[in-house]
């Protein structure tokens, strides 16, 4: 098939532990979407939240991807090595008067209601012991999703002045992920539905750094027996290297594909690419 030269997708896990089934779903879906169009697929380790990062987890994650025949293009980026880039981006927003300092604690914000109401907007606070928030005067309240269709975001959430730099001295995911996606040339973002609403904030930031915007596909979340999202925080079991085929088959079935358990992992993934292309890009099948 002819490659779509400008397609670039990515998988960007937090190294807080090994990959689990929910992680595999996101990795596989993003991989299939990229390879179905002959595009590039990158891996980025999102370790900007240093307290959550577990030593050595990045190496385990990369090995798990290889075991499941999900091979990436180019070098692996680490957010922890890019703080100077995020600082420059934050300064750019500040120079445009798009940020302000906030002294509110989480407890104080929660006491005021479910959304931050901008109580520090006009206080002109100094930087000491404060967070930096984005002055969200022009929120994005809707966008199109390649799997879910038209998405409307709750007005109060979309308009919230979200945090770019935390009081503990760390840059937030919202800022780092946008800057990295732009610099890596990401065109298509395929990830779990838990990040659906935050897409409005991220799309908002995109327009202050570039004229282009990414396409989104948000895949359903895998849940445990209690209806909770599978996550490292909820102690989801790690992928087992001795059950790669079974895990790939289960992930394919979850994504609406038809796996053949008799195939080797590499052939199973190749089959998944073909099926994904037929479903989502029939003009390329």
From TrEMBL:
InterPro entries referenced in this protein's UniProt entry, alphabetically: Glu-Q_tRNA(Asp)_Synthase (IPR022380), Glu/Gln-tRNA-synth (IPR000924), Glu/Gln-tRNA-synth_Ib_cat-dom (IPR020058), GluQ/Sye (IPR049940), Rossmann-like_a/b/a_fold (IPR014729)
Gene3D superfamilies linked: HUPs
UniProt-listed Enzyme Commission number(s): 6.1.1.-
Keywords from the UniProt entry: Aminoacyl-tRNA synthetase, ATP-binding, Ligase, Metal-binding, Nucleotide-binding, Protein biosynthesis, Zinc
Motif ('KMSKS' region): 229-233
Domain Glutamyl/glutaminyl-tRNA synthetase class Ib catalytic: 10-111, 123-246
Function statement: Catalyzes the tRNA-independent activation of glutamate in presence of ATP and the subsequent transfer of glutamate onto a tRNA(Asp). Glutamate is transferred on the 2-amino-5-(4,5-dihydroxy-2-cyclopenten-1-yl) moiety of the queuosine in the wobble position of the QUC anticodon.
HAMAP family: Glu_Q_tRNA_synth
Family to which this protein belongs: Belongs to the class-I aminoacyl-tRNA synthetase family. GluQ subfamily.
Protein name: Glutamyl-Q tRNA(Asp) synthetase
Chain's gene name: gluQ
